[in-house]
Amino acid sequence: MSSDASDGADAKTALRVRALESLLLEKGLIETDAIEELVDMFENRLGPWNGAKVVARAWTDPAFKQRLLQDGTAALAEMGFDTIQGEEMVIVENSPGVHNVIVCTLCSCFPWAVLGLPPVWYKSAPYRAEAARDPRGVLREFGTEIDGDTEVRVWDSNAELRYMVLPERPAGSDNMDAAALAELVTRDSMIGVSKVAPP
Amino acid sequence: MRKILAVPNLTMPEQRAGATLPRDSDDAVFPEAWQAHAFAVIMSLYQDGHYNWAEWDDYLGYCIQAPGHFATAPGEEADGGEQAEHTGSNRSPFLTACERDGAQYYHFWLAATEQLLDAKGLVSTAELDARVAAIEKAEQAGPRFSAGQRVLVRDIKREGHTHLPLYLRGKTGVVESDRGLIVFPEAAGHNHGDDHQHDGADTLQHVFCVRFSATDIWGESASATHDLNFNLWDYQLKAA
A108–B60: do the CB atoms touch at under 8 Å? Predict the structure, then answer.
């Protein structure tokens, strides 16, 4: 559906952003280079591939995993993933009896340093409401079935404290090294709406 | 270094091949360039200390939790519908609803941006509306001259500093290229005081690069194989 009406509306919004940028440039409040650098950073350098490396290392390096669960912010900094706005990072571990899910019920807080910007659905009202009210139902929508004996823990992120899920290492991955394991890890598994599938 | 105050076109970087893992996150980070730029503006001003993140979070949270604010915004349903069609048949109604609702996110982001920047005195709503109108006006009118056209530099009398080299007044040149829409520093409302304003000059004007032959400017003693190129605002030119 790309009617003239929707194209026109989007063009109007884009025009507003251009107008805003032109005023800020004129006032010396922003610089073109800085804006381009930020877009590139979030487009190309921050993303779930970073989190996948963290997960793979935690699966293969028990001492690192312990540090990661104890002080997420420090352990991530050790791997070069500094938080963007000085927020604290908490890593929550899935285990046979516990499944963790992250949400920002009020807006869209997300662990940028390791997962980049959140997917569209994460920022939506239905996900934010239902993940808190009926997480098992939401997980089912993502094709994830959590049995009744497993405790589902929902973690509400805010600007100061953000979470990442450390998913369970899948069966049949015993002989894989960290680089190969990282390729198995999905973004959704680090949000907690899915599990890491066996190789 | 002072930057040219051109109205920016919203550019996007190439997506790099390395940024592809994991497999489920191949959806675009920023589906539209304006979303990337609205995002980067807020980050840049935050990094320069114009507000703290909690302040921004307040405005964003307010806009997100007050969807009524955007109930009649142009494009809302159109965007949602478009999103729903992309994700279409193989997703559950719940996830489709999530995609549709989430597609509004950067509209909320922009609304929060406008409110915060107004509250902080960085860009007022009136100022923004005026600039939107100025860009629309200039883009609708289009450039007055095109490459190859002969133009005459107007004989503008003005006290104080001017952006027009005075020896060009009354000279005829040829338009080499159109540099796009650029803020006219001498336009009314540009902080130069009333006596310095040019009545009727638009804030945003096309700037044309105009080529003059040296002999036209310096006389017959100049080299015949020497020309000079100047960037001149629309206001400073008329058709020759």
Answer: yes
* C-beta of residue B198 within 8 angstroms of C-beta of residue B187: yes
Q: Is pLDDT above 50 for B72? A: no
Instruction: Nearest by CB to B131, from A23, A32, A158: name it.
Output: A23
B62 touches chain A (CB under 8 A): no
Give a yes or no: residue A198 inside a domain: no
Give the model confidence (pLDDT) of B32-45 as tens digits: 999 999 999 999 99
Both A38 and A67 in one domain: the answer is: no
Residues B145-201 have pLDDT tens digits of: 999 999 999 988 766 667 788 889 999 999 999 998 888 877 755 444 444 445 567
Helix (H) or strand (E) holding A85: none
| pLDDT tens digit sequence for A19-58 | 999 999 989 999 999 999 999 999 888 889 999 999 999 9
Q: How far is B24 from chain A (nearest CA, A)?
A: 6
Same domain membership, residue A122 and residue A89: yes
User: What is the CATH T-level fold of the domain B150-239, as seen in this structure?
Assistant: SH3 type barrels. (2.30.30)
CB of B20 less than 8 A from some CB of A: yes
The per-residue b/e assignment along B127-162, b for 16 or more CB within 10 angstroms, e otherwise, is bbeebbebbeebeeeebbbeeebebbbeeeeeeeee
CATH number, domain containing residue A97: 3.90.330.10
A45 chain-B contacts, CB cut-off 8 A: 19
Over residues B22-32, mean pLDDT: 71
Name the residue ranges covered by the structural domains of chain B: 33-123, 150-239
Residues on chain A touching B55 (C-beta within 8 angstroms)? none
pLDDT higher than threshold 50 for residue B83:
no
Write out pLDDT tens, residues A150-176: 999 999 998 889 999 999 999 999 999
A112 found inside a domain: yes
Q: How far is CA B152 from CA A79, B100, B169, B211, B240, in A?
A: 63, 54, 8, 11, 5
CA B34 to chain centre: 11
Which pTM was predicted?
Answer: 0.81
Residues A52 and A33 reside in one and the same domain = no
Is A10 within 8 Å of B21 when comparing Cβ atoms? no
Same domain? For A186 and A113 the reply is: yes
Q: Write down the pLDDT at residue A61.
A: 98
